[in-house]
Write a structure and sequence with these properties.
This protein is α+β, with helices and mostly antiparallel strands and 225 residues long. The protein contains eight helices and eight strands, in the order E-H-H-E-H-E-H-H-E-E-H-H-E-E-E-H. Strands 1, 2, 3, 4, 5 and 8 form a six-stranded antiparallel beta sheet that branches. Helix 1 packs across helix 5 and helix 4 runs antiparallel to helix 5. The radius of gyration is 18 Å and the shape is globular.
């Protein structure tokens, strides 16, 4: 069964958006705060957040009778001891992309703030979607969201992943020739379900392949995912 739903974001996480902007622990000045508020208002009018998901059984780390391969050592470790896997896709909508492009013509400052707010918003959408999905699996332990393209889990499976979910038709998420999602503020990921899992349900810096390059770590924080 494939299920898709809408998500409402009442308040975008400004702290997360500021981290994307590179503020670290610094506080924004009054002008930036005003821009955050005005851009949030515009962004919320453009957002039409949706998500879609499907749950599959797992056998030895793969989905029986499926041509989709959960490829790579990282995803194998991630799904160790899992008996089910959730395929999920979430998006903010094409209207958000259009708004950011429009601002890039007139105000790069506003465009940068909108882009950071949208990045924070899609993360909030994914958090809400995950919570909704996992309500049906209270008796299972779960892993954190593992995105396509992360570590050695290849982006080449992006189109097949979306087709399995019927995401282009159901929530308007497609993939271009560079394997990038459109709308841009969209996410594809998998979540493992099982018992006695070796993988925690939250990502830590120790298990992240980007830890040596991470700007958050250089500033003494973390991405929190």
């Amino acid at each position: 069964m494939t299920d898709n739903r809408n998500i409402t974001i009442e308040k975008i996480d400004f702290n997360e958006a500021l981290r994307y902007l590179g503020y670290g622990k610094k506080k924004p000045d009054s002008m930036t705060e005003e821009l955050l508020l005005s851009c949030e208002k515009e962004l919320k009018q453009a957002i039409e957040a949706k998500f879609i998901y499907k749950v599959f059984d797992l056998d030895k780390g793969q989905i029986p009778n499926s041509t989709f391969v959960l490829e790579g050592k990282a995803i194998a470790r991630h799904l160790e001891n899992c008996t089910k896997v959730i395929f999920m896709c979430a998006t903010l909508s094409s209207k958000v992309d259009a708004l950011i492009r429009k601002k890039q013509i007139g105000s790069m400052a506003e465009a940068a703030i909108l882009d950071s707010l949208a990045s924070a918003a899609i993360e909030q959408v994914c958090n809400k979607a995950e919570q909704i999905i996992l309500n049906d699996f209270e008796n299972y332990e779960h892993t954190w969201r593992f995105g396509l393209g992360y570590d050695d889990f290849p982006l080449t499976g992006q189109k097949q992943f979306l087709d399995i979910l019927d995401a282009p038709k159901r929530i308007g998420v497609c993939v271009n020739s560079s394997m990038m999602l459109t709308p841009a503020k969209s996410v594809t990921c998998v979540i493992g379900l099982g018992h006695h899992l070796k993988m925690e349900n939250k990502k830590s810096c120790e298990m992240c392949s980007f830890r040596e390059k991470c700007q958050f770590r250089k500033e003494g924080t973390s991405c929190g995912r």
